[in-house]
Automatic annotation (TrEMBL):
InterPro entries, A to Z: Cyt_P450, Cyt_P450_CS, Cyt_P450_E_grp-I, Cyt_P450_sf, Cytochrome_P450_fam2
UniProt similarity note: Belongs to the cytochrome P450 family.
GO cellular component: cytoplasm
Amino-acid positions noted as binding heme in the UniProt annotation, renumbered to this chain: C357
The protein's name in its UniProt record: Cytochrome P450 2D11
Length: 420
């Protein structure tokens, strides 16, 4: 899998069905584009995000603290009211706000309605993608025959909403630029994008900005919230694993100090847990579908030009030769006898080669900081009398757990140290 996906001949995308419609049948954006425009847009976007501090743990820590406040508030309210939490409802909006912060550079009250709208339509998009997106990709005609049944209308509604909001952001940035601002005055991603409109209009135009906006929202929000939901699922199913993680947190932050990303080096068990959650849940089970740009030789086989490659990571994540007991959820497989982190090179979560996920670092910072800050404060359990939730994942745009509920209680140590 690795050698095929890393091959330059396998860098194309299968742009059919809804994936073509969402791009207005143009070669633009990052996720679905190809060739020079893909390379330029991807490189510029992630270099610029990195310049703005995304991917830098220190800056991300501030973003994540802001995003986690609303998650803590929801959990605190549920504890006071003694009600259960529906896990599929708590992460998506906070993570989306963080992506908004990455792109727009601020989270002001006027942004509230746009974020609310993106969150509502985004949730509907995820729920509609149970199998519709896959089928319409194979038989594109079906999206016009059964648009409602296949969720096509809901999916296009999400893309249209994204485009409308992105267009307003772009026009605002462009208007500022037209007031002859100096490069130093560019403060956020939109400003920096607009600065290039005159010198390179082929790449820096409204349509490409709309697609980048869609790509960043879809790429970061659904995947990371699904990973968090899967982590919660395993924490309540295996309380002994949750306690082991909590003991590790106490060792590093005994006095209730907030954890930083650099603390992960002293926390090999939680890192092992996050890897094992990826292995078992396979959020992006088929990685990203690729199209072969020219005949590709692999061993004695030839993969013909235009063949679509849909990697099936189950074959790898469930391989008994690699994992011995792949059916068991066992974070310890990523720790050696001294407790150090090992075997991470065996993971394929973020794919391979030039088209591998460019948000891997952001995703890792987010999942580590969000999860540790939650587990530092709260103990998560299944509600009394509730049967164990199923551990297999629900198909969709990304795989996520079937809906389940949890109960939270405050950790005594956190409340005590925090109040001191
Ligand atoms: C748990 C979290 C995440 C997982 C499991 C994940 C996984 C993936 C995978 C498997 C691909 C396809 C790679 C390929 O085609 O070979 C991908 C692509 C992509 N991801 Fe992620 N991702 C995550 C988070 C993020 C975040 C946080 C961002 C943005 C900040 C992001 C942005 C993207 C983009 C833009 C692409 C398209 C890359 C291209 O086609 O060149 N992802 N991701």
């Amino acid at each position: 899998m690795q050698s095929i996906l890393s091959n330059e001949a396998a860098l194309g995308r299968d742009v059919t069905g809804i994936f073509a419609d969402r791009c207005g049948h143009q070669n633009l954006g990052i996720t679905m584009s190809e060739g020079e425009i893909w390379e330029k847009t991807r490189t510029w976007t992630f270099k610029t995000l990195s310049k703005l501090g995304c991917g830098n743990a220190r800056n991300m820590e501030n973003y994540i603290r802001m995003a986690s406040e609303s998650i803590f508030a929801q959990i605190d309210d549920s504890i006071m009211a003694r009600v259960d939490i529906e896990v599929d409802k708590i992460f998506q909006k906070s993570i989306l706000s963080m992506t908004w912060l990455m792109i727009v550079g601020k989270l002001s009250p006027e942004d509230g309605p746009d974020i609310e709208l993106l969150s509502d339509k985004g949730r509907a998009f995820m729920e509609s993608s149970f199998f519709g997106a896959g089928i319409t990709n194979v038989f594109p005609i079906l999206r016009f025959i059964f648009p409602h049944w296949l969720g096509y209308n809901v999916q296009m509604d999400f893309f249209t909403t994204c485009n409308k909001i992105a267009k307003n952001l772009f026009l605002e940035g462009k208007a500022k630029q037209d007031l002859h601002r100096t490069p130093e005055e560019a403060k956020n991603f939109v400003d920096l994008f607009s600065q290039n409109c005159n010198s390179d209009p082929k790449t820096f135009n409204c349509e490409n900005f709309q697609l980048i906006f869609q790509d960043l929202l879809l790429g970061s929000t659904d995947t990371t919230s699904s990973h968090m939901e899967a982590a919660f699922l395993h924490l309540v199913t295996f309380p002994e694993i949750q306690e082991k993680i909590y003991r590790e947190i106490l060792q590093v932050s005994g006095e209730g100090k907030p954890l930083n990303f650099s603390d992960r080096n002293s926390m090999p068990y939680i890192q092992a847990f996050l890897h094992e959650t990826h292995r078992m849940s396979r959020i992006a089970q088929n990685l990203g579908p690729r199209r072969v740009l020219r005949d590709l030789k692999y061993k004695e086989f030839t993969i013909k030009k235009d063949t679509v490659i849909l990697p099936d990571t189950r074959l790898y994540c469930e391989d008994k030769i690699i994992w011995q007991d792949p059916e068991n959820f066992r974070p310890e497989r990523f720790n050696n006898s001294d407790g150090e982190l090992v075997n991470t090179e065996k993971m394929i979560t973020f794919s391979f080669g030039k088209r591998a996920c460019p948000g891997e670092r952001q995703a890792n910072i987010l999942s580590f900081l969000l999860l540790t800050s939650i587990l530092q404060r709260y103990k998560l359990s299944l509600p009394e009398g509730e049967t164990k939730p199923r551990l297999d994942m629900k198909l969709g745009f990304s795989q996520r757990p079937y809906p389940f509920k949890i109960r939270c209680t405050w950790r005594k140590e956190f409340v005590r140290d925090y109040l001191q």
